[in-house]
Specification:
The complex is a heterodimer of chains A (about 190) and B (about 240).
Chain A: H1 3-11, E1 16-17, H2 18-28, H3 37-49, E2 53-58, E3 64-68, H4 70-81, H5 93-104, H6 109-133, H7 139-168, H8 177-189
Antiparallel strand pairs in A: 1-3, 2-3
Helix pairs in contact in A: 1-2, 1-3, 2-3, 5-6, 6-7
Chain B: E1 5-16, E2 23-34, E3 38-42, H1 49-56, E4 64-69, E5 72-73, H2 78-88, E6 90-93, H3 105-115, H4 120-133, H5 149-161, E7 167-171, H6 179-194, E8 198-202, H7 206-209, E9 214-219, E10 222-228, H8 236-240
Parallel strand pairs in B: 3-8, 3-9, 6-7, 7-8
Antiparallel strand pairs in B: 1-2, 1-4, 4-5, 9-10
Helix pairs in contact in B: 3-4, 3-5, 4-5
The chains are: A mainly alpha (about 190), B alpha/beta (about 240).
Chain lengths: ~190, ~240
């Protein structure tokens, strides 16, 4: 996610200076993405350049607060109205590794599944423990761990599904690019 | 043998049926569960999970191998010894609730302790405590057919937890329960183990298995180690990067 949008959202509640934005960002996100203060200032400068925020005069302590502009508010309204693109989620390494193993026969897919399951299950155990041992009133933190738990759980379910499918039938072997070319050619002559 | 070893299964096999119909439900299973440990058994349906639990609780006998609970061999115990073990040391939380329809919730929970010689008053008090632990104070005096399926399941769980049970055996203990109630039941199991009990829990839900210290998996009757909780959970930095 863009730190840029995150800072803009925080500025919708009123002007803030850089360090305050860093703290607010971390509290709101359960400290999931610790921000480097330098990154905050660089981002604010870019937002100012693009007329999304304006800098106020220095206060007594020499700090500059930033205020969101009308254009900035428009940008945030647009950002919030759009879904997040799923391009990253669609290409995760676990599925890629396993599907390619199945297709190529380069290794025993059961082994790949077992190895991955061990690691994923351990992660799920660790997250579950963090969640139960953690501060129950820290909602951003709890919700973040929930997100990780669901994601990890989904991966385990998928590994089970692959294993189940493997036991039902021999997976279709790899379709090489030559075979694809052949079938395309055949289609063309119909 | 370690002093705090509660369950020891060595080379355990179980064959159901004979001849061509023969099914090898479990093959050469070695499993040890110590006091303080919650072990989750995962695996597809038909992989032998319930057979494993029945054997551990003395509800079924292995074809091969030996099983010890608190250092005592189950096959040396005889029918009376096994019955005492089931009333006293082992808590069962199984899919079928097996509640007696003619007894109220609190009477159902108190029954094993009464059978074991506890006074009616003591048994009832312990049963009320166990019912409160699963959040069922309000239905103690109702009959099974007057409460919901989820409540019946929690009564059965309270019956499995009541008294000083050393070995808790749970077969899909959260089957009929919603997510929040399931978590509270898992929390109780976890607390009991942290307080010194040993538990073996069968579940097909990865999120529930994750409450365990150790996760094992049955595949075609064979037991495989999957994972254990890290000694130290990951730090915030490790988690998010």
């Amino acid at each position: 996610m863009g730190v840029r949008e995150g800072l803009l959202v925080l500025l919708t509640t009123g002007p803030k200076h850089g360090y305050q934005l860093k703290l607010d960002f971390e509290v709101a996100t359960g400290e999931a993405w610790p921000l480097n203060i330098g990154q905050v200032y660089t981002t604010l400068q870019r937002l100012e350049r693009d007329d999304l925020v304006t800098a106020t005069d220095e206060d007594d302590e020499g700090r500059i607060a930033y205020r969101i502009t009308a254009t900035g508010k428009e940008e945030i309204t647009h950002w919030l109205s759009e879904p997040v693109e799923r391009t990253v989620a669609n290409r995760d390494e676990v599925s890629m590794k396993l599907l390619l193993t199945l297709a190529s026969g380069v290794a025993d897919p059961q082994r790949v599944i077992d190895t991955q399951r061990r690691s994923t299950m351990q992660a799920l155990q660790d997250y579950t423990r963090l969640r139960t041992d953690g501060d129950r009133t820290d909602f951003p933190w709890q919700l973040h761990i929930d997100r990780l738990i669901f994601r990890t759980e989904a991966e385990l379910r998928w590994l089970d599904r692959v294993e189940e499918c493997m036991s039902l039938e021999t997976p279709r072997s790899i379709t090489t690019s030559n075979e694809v070319a052949d079938s395309t050619a055949r289609e063309g002559t119909k | 043998m370690s002093a705090d070893r509660i369950l020891t299964m060595s080379g355990v096999g179980r064959v159901h049926g004979k001849g061509a119909q023969q099914v090898r439900a479990l093959v050469d299973v070695d499993l040890e569960v110590s006091a303080g440990e919650l072990v989750a058994v995962t695996g597809r349906s038909g992989s032998g999970k319930t057979t494993l639990l029945n054997l551990a609780g003395g509800l079924d006998e292995p074809t091969t191998g030996t099983i010890q609970v608190e250092g005592r061999h189950l096959d040396d115990m005889g029918a009376n010894g096994l019955a005492a073990l089931r009333r006293r040391s082992v808590g069962y939380m199984f899919q079928q609730f097996n509640l007696l329809a003619t007894l109220t919730a609190v009477e159902n929970v108190a029954l094993p302790m009464e059978l074991d010689g506890m006074t009616l008053r003591e048994a009832r008090h312990a049963a009320e405590v166990a019912l409160a632990e699963v959040g069922l104070e309000g239905v103690a005096n109702r009959y099974p057919d007057e409460i919901s399926g989820g409540e019946q399941q929690r009564v059965a769980i309270a019956r499995g937890l009541v008294g000083p049970r050393k070995l808790l055996l749970a077969d899909e203990p959260t089957g009929a329960l919603d997510e929040i109630t399931s978590e509270s039941i898992l929390g109780i199991l976890r607390d009991r183990c942290d307080a010194g009990a040993a538990a073996l829990m069968v579940t097909h839900e990865p999120a529930f298995a994750a409450w365990a210290d150790r996760v094992v998996r049955l595949r075609d009757g064979r037991l495989e180690h999957v994972s254990e909780r890290s000694a130290l959970p990951p730090t915030v930095e490790e988690m998010w990067t």
